[in-house]
Amino acid sequence: MPDEMARPLIRRGGGEAGCSGRLEAPASDPGAPVVGILGTGDFSRSLARRLVASGYRVAVGSRNPKRSAALFPEEAEVTSQLEAVGLADLVFVAVFPEHHSTLAALKPSLAGKTLVDVSNGLSVNRDGPSNAERLAELFPESSVVKGFNTISAWTLQVGPRDGSRQILLCGNSCSAKSSVMQLCRRMGFVPVDMGLLSSSLDIENLPHRLFPCWRLPALCTLCLFAFFYAYNFLRDVLQPYVTAGKSVFYKMPIQTVNATFPAVALVTLSLVYLPGVCGALLQLWRGTKYDRFPCWLDRWLTSRKQLGLCSFMCAALHAIYSLVLPSRKSAHFKLLIESKQLQEEDVWVDAEVWRVELYLSAGIVAFGLLSLLAVASLPSVANAVNWREFSFIQSTLGYCALFVSTLHTLLFGWDRAFDPARYHFYLPPTFALALVLPVVALLGRLALLAPCVARRLGLIRRGWERSRHVRFARPDDVCCNGLEDASYV
Amino acid sequence: MPDEMARPLIRRGGGEAGCSGRLEAPASDPGAPVVGILGTGDFSRSLARRLVASGYRVAVGSRNPKRSAALFPEEAEVTSQLEAVGLADLVFVAVFPEHHSTLAALKPSLAGKTLVDVSNGLSVNRDGPSNAERLAELFPESSVVKGFNTISAWTLQVGPRDGSRQILLCGNSCSAKSSVMQLCRRMGFVPVDMGLLSSSLDIENLPHRLFPCWRLPALCTLCLFAFFYAYNFLRDVLQPYVTAGKSVFYKMPIQTVNATFPAVALVTLSLVYLPGVCGALLQLWRGTKYDRFPCWLDRWLTSRKQLGLCSFMCAALHAIYSLVLPSRKSAHFKLLIESKQLQEEDVWVDAEVWRVELYLSAGIVAFGLLSLLAVASLPSVANAVNWREFSFIQSTLGYCALFVSTLHTLLFGWDRAFDPARYHFYLPPTFALALVLPVVALLGRLALLAPCVARRLGLIRRGWERSRHVRFARPDDVCCNGLEDASYV
Amino acid sequence: MPDEMARPLIRRGGGEAGCSGRLEAPASDPGAPVVGILGTGDFSRSLARRLVASGYRVAVGSRNPKRSAALFPEEAEVTSQLEAVGLADLVFVAVFPEHHSTLAALKPSLAGKTLVDVSNGLSVNRDGPSNAERLAELFPESSVVKGFNTISAWTLQVGPRDGSRQILLCGNSCSAKSSVMQLCRRMGFVPVDMGLLSSSLDIENLPHRLFPCWRLPALCTLCLFAFFYAYNFLRDVLQPYVTAGKSVFYKMPIQTVNATFPAVALVTLSLVYLPGVCGALLQLWRGTKYDRFPCWLDRWLTSRKQLGLCSFMCAALHAIYSLVLPSRKSAHFKLLIESKQLQEEDVWVDAEVWRVELYLSAGIVAFGLLSLLAVASLPSVANAVNWREFSFIQSTLGYCALFVSTLHTLLFGWDRAFDPARYHFYLPPTFALALVLPVVALLGRLALLAPCVARRLGLIRRGWERSRHVRFARPDDVCCNGLEDASYV
């Protein structure tokens, strides 16, 4: 569902969406500062529109003014590159980086002015120099600011979506940066100063990233899925076929999948809370919090949110699959056959009834809690809570969710783990495998709650260090809703 | 669920929520600038509270100071209009526009000062002049700024919800505007400069719009629903009644609806991706991207997000309806009757079993993908991703969703499309109708992926034009996560 | 799912997440202003990282520079406290409040400088003075600004999540405040001026609150749940056991719960709209809107959003529970038994079929509407709509939801309310109880829509007062998407 501006007024400022709109052309302010734009591509046009809509005067430098003029709002003055540069103190360079050299002629007239490089590389550039740095070499007398490359022409046209759109800037001249920042703000964007031009390479590489922090969690979820699916296939489909020649391959699309998702969801959820426990144990063992965690633990800790959401997705799919079960024709047929073969003996098995009622209700509660956690991790919701509320949700509620889903699995298993008949090919039932990690995580958490351990941990997290044998916290350590807790949640 | 501030501290700043709160009255800053307010209505009161809470000194001009004083926080000085205007350089005019004339007496003392017009019309005003423009005529020596009319008194009182609340401003004097913008920022709002006072009419009309960008998509969804419902009613309810006298009207509330929603969802989803294909073909045919799309295509392109969400809603309702089916008494009775009439022949039909298992699982996957797309189009989520991630979700995942839901429909249909018995009244089954557009969209997309076509399209989107027969992109076209792709997603 | 930055670039700026990242060390700007930090705790370190990443030069004052240096990014100059204070005009005080006294030695060199107190109390401090006020007493020649305590070290490290992160500030010196505000903005945060230092106590207490606005609604929902569960247990489980000795305790985990949730959801939903009706009636009775509502009504009005969300949660759980019903073994067994006992008489009961089909479809529609309301109350969505759209959703759609869910309950009840056999222990069926409040709310709303009443109410809400017997609105009352409506939604 391609996102676009909810506020038609501003969108109408864009030509793409035009066909209507006095705002297409709000006369720009004669007193307003002039901004120059070199280049007449899509980005230049969107930028010009936004600038005009924000009350700036715009001078566009084109190598072919006549041709280009038609493409710009009539308030924008489309002239030669030299003229445009002459009019403005702040000039956007919106030409392909490979063509920056074509601007050499403008060097003298650009001296002492601010150049904003909005370009992106075609691919990730690891070793630099960045386009912006090359531009700065080209125009040593001008102060180059990198920015706007993380904003798409589309976003520029429709305007800041909800006033929280960030523009990352960097540059070596403070004054140049602040003038660009002011411009950003007048357009309704939120500028963020990223420091010196040396950061420009990172800023240029930003638009090329594709969910980097999702890779690890997604991969691990996929592997878990593959493993458990194969395992279930072996136990539930292949085994009856091999041993009894019973063909139940029709189970593969739904039943086997639905036996896999809960296992994946439970294990992934336990992976959300294990690193916190590891971190705490590590701190206890080291007797300080001032040594960095090992790298793998760091990455694990920072992947918890994504792991949690993966776990939630699996749980949700498990819920849907389970609800779908009774609508399958196979279930329908099974029922008919059963009712046909039915002898006079009583069909009602009380234990079975209780088991199902209990594990179903535990499952529903667990799913409800997971949904709360998922909603709470939406950016706008997470922003509205303070640290204490956040850790209450993610830590307290999170552990409740882990506990209840473990309970759900235990109730589902009932006494089957001890029934040899369940060990097809000598393989333990899936739920038994899935229970290992969650139980470890829960026991670990319990151990940390033991008074002595908890006290010691509390001290360490307030800055106490065994090595220094001081009982009180370091005076130069502020007690604050702190980072230390981040490894704790 | 009437929305209100999550942050009670600030909310307590409001009287409505009062009953508590030292913040009800934070002594205001003697050194702070004075802001004047003309008018003592709700808006004035909320404004006064917010200004005081932001450390401003407030002078309220009332025609009846004694009476009004009680309504304002005690820090606000409630005096005569003349006095209030005398104290402040920046004056909010919060009286009914029809009563602006009553302020004529203040003309001399308002000269050279900044007037902020916060008024709204009672209805949409198409031809102007706007209230602000009329106010500017009334006070030629003052510089009028339009703004704050898009903010409700309630929002003012509870404060900016999450720091991303925009205030649209316009005015002819730059200095006046920037002083108002600074004031906005100190209150925690995000000011957006909309240019000259000529934009004020649009800003005044903003609060009157009611989901303008939802009209078209919602209408089209409704029409599709009406059509398919009628069609299904004809085939599944009326036909058996007319031909066999079999009364199955009980199907109308659920079964017929549940046969309608999937069709609507699928067609609407295809409508999300068709315009992109059209746009691409148009660009290929024209051999350039620099000609504007026809108006209908523009509007279609900008409605894609809403169409997608409509499609998701229908899909979600379809899911719920389908899950509800087995809990209906009718299903229950049917089953009992079937089990009663059951003869000795085998009830198990393998093809049926496979068909259902397959289309159900395809359906679940499709719904999962649609849910992802829906979540990704939440403002706060969409803001957190860069262009590449955004187009990955909306384009790649989107087409996957379209493909899988088409597959779901095909599997549901199985071989029925070729079974004459299915053609009640010679009408083809619903799923066959619903499949037309999606298949077109998918084939169109496939065609665009053909190497030669894709290359050509890529060139065009980098600025190449057949007319100019140049093989390389225009140097004055920046390669940027660009608008061109917007028509592509 | 512990939340963390979506933007790895900035996160890499943090050590916790480090292990990668040129941004770990962006050379800081020689021309940039110097910011001092006293204290070397987690918060100081995160703050230093963020400041360096935002292009500031940082001087950290430690009582043990050698030891601490390792903990800070290499751009940050870690020196003695005295030296650090000497270098900077703006100094963050990030030491435990109980150790503020240890800074006394710095008094002379801190004179005339801006001190930012970032500390929090260990617990809620009701009567003051706040840490900041005590710090101000300690350093009378410095101007103290309170702030940053609502931001966690973690948030500082990962940077502003989506550019809408607020930092609440207060202080007595305007210039000091604005310099701190500018610093906030350069870091990408949204500063909010909360007035004089007297507000610091509230700001310090903020991080200690735990969902204050959820207490009342959650409590009321829980009580309703307890009551209705007990009521259902009595009627559906205990009664058959006592009277007929029939043990149906297996109903407790699911069936009884599922009979409870709808009742709770419906009553809670009616509680969302009752206060609006009360408010309107009160205004009609008083003949003015300028008298404050009684306290209980105020609190009720401000809890509506939370009540609504509670109602939605109950409705969602009710939906899941109902969908789960047919998958229970008990349902399975019941069906088999039924099909076994089945005599030749016809099983099909038309009334039953229609009843179920109708109440199910009404239920689905009601749930769909409630979901819309829930989504619309997400901060980021609520921010994107204007007042008219907001009140359309929350008022118009809200009443539709209330009406349809009442209908759902009525259809579910069918004629049972008049069937004496349903009155176990002479207790009326649950749905009858649950219907009382919703019906009241709906009738109240209807009454308010009566032309005469509506006209009068409209007048009052535009500022008319019976006492003054004026027919037209007060001229000094701006017609604006106003607060008055807030009590109306």
UniProtKB/TrEMBL annotation, chains A, B, C:
Transmembrane segments: 213-231, 259-285, 306-324, 358-378, 390-411, 431-454
Membrane-topology annotation of the record: Multi-pass membrane protein
One Gene Ontology CC term in the entry: plasma membrane
Compartment annotation: Endosome membrane
Top-level taxon of the source organism: Eukaryota
UniProt keywords, alphabetically: Copper, Endosome, FAD, Flavoprotein, Ion transport, Iron, Iron transport, Membrane, Metal-binding, Oxidoreductase, Transmembrane, Transmembrane helix, Transport
InterPro entries, per database record: Fe3_Rdtase_TM_dom, NAD(P)-bd_dom_sf, P5C_Rdtase_cat_N, STEAP_metalloreductase
Domain annotation Pyrroline-5-carboxylate reductase catalytic N-terminal: ranges: 35-121
Reaction(s) the record says it catalyses: 2 Cu(+) + NADP(+) + H(+) = 2 Cu(2+) + NADPH; 2 Fe(2+) + NADP(+) + H(+) = 2 Fe(3+) + NADPH
Entry's Gene Ontology molecular function annotations: cupric reductase (NADH) activity; ferric-chelate reductase (NADPH) activity; metal ion binding
Family (UniProt): Belongs to the STEAP family.
PANTHER family found in the cross-reference section: DUDULIN-RELATED, METALLOREDUCTASE STEAP3
Protein name (database record): Metalloreductase STEAP3
Species: Liparis tanakae (Tanaka's snailfish)
